[in-house]
Design goal:
Strand content: 5-15%
Number of strands: 5
Distance between the termini: 52 Å
Number of helices: 7
Radius of gyration: 23 Å
């Protein structure tokens, strides 16, 4: 029975990451391919099924869009498009919200999810890993006195859900670990601890 459990766990450790990675990639490819109509499918264009062709088309469109909007003319067209979207009552709220989140998370020089920290949550004395997402703004900032930071506390083992907190900067502890290492630590429920930082030689 002990050998059975040992070999079962060893097999799970090999297959679980492979299966989950395959599922995530397949889901991503399928979602992106569903954006394009069937008229652009491999069977419609070439007469045979080519897995991933529509995904490559979507990727090519994204790259071309990014290249075209990198110059002055492209940016002017984007500005006109955003002004048009801002005039549609229902669409305006959804579009602006999604765009603000995208600009915050995907900006090359942004600070969101660039640093892992320790915060006391859900009570004083209990610590968890969080990610700095910025500083409070708007009306919320006017009600906070002092230096505060915005952090995202992910749940375990699914880090895509979590809690948004505004905490005093003095109450967080900066960690000398990468965001990837912190995410692995969270997803593994603390079982896969990142290695300690190298000691500086004197």
């Amino acid at each position: 029975m002990r050998a059975f459990k040992k070999y079962l766990m060893a097999g799970l450790l090999i297959w679980a990451p492979l299966v989950i990675t395959t599922w995530v990639v397949w889901t991503l490819v399928s979602t992106l391919e569903s954006i394009l109509p069937e008229s652009l499918s491999a069977r419609a264009l070439l007469g045979v099924d080519v897995p991933g062709l529509r995904f490559l088309i979507v990727l090519l469109v994204l790259l071309l869009t990014g290249a075209l909007t990198a110059n002055f003319i492209g940016q002017a067209l984007v500005d006109r498009w955003e002004r048009l979207m801002g005039r549609i009552p229902l669409i305006r709220s959804i579009y602006n919200s999604v765009k603000q989140v995208g600009d915050t998370l995907l900006a090359p020089n942004g600070q969101a999810f660039r640093q892992a920290v320790l915060v006391q949550y859900p009570r004083v004395g209990a610590w968890t890993i969080a990610f700095v997402t910025g500083v409070p703004g708007g009306e919320a900032a006017r009600h906070l006195s002092g230096d505060y930071v915005s952090v995202y506390v992910p749940t375990t083992p699914n880090p895509t859900s979590g809690f948004f907190l505004m905490v005093p900067r003095a109450d967080i502890v900066a960690l000398n670990m990468s965001v990837d290492a912190a995410l692995k630590y969270i997803v593994s429920m603390g079982a896969v601890a990142p290695p300690p930082p190298p000691q500086e030689s004197h």
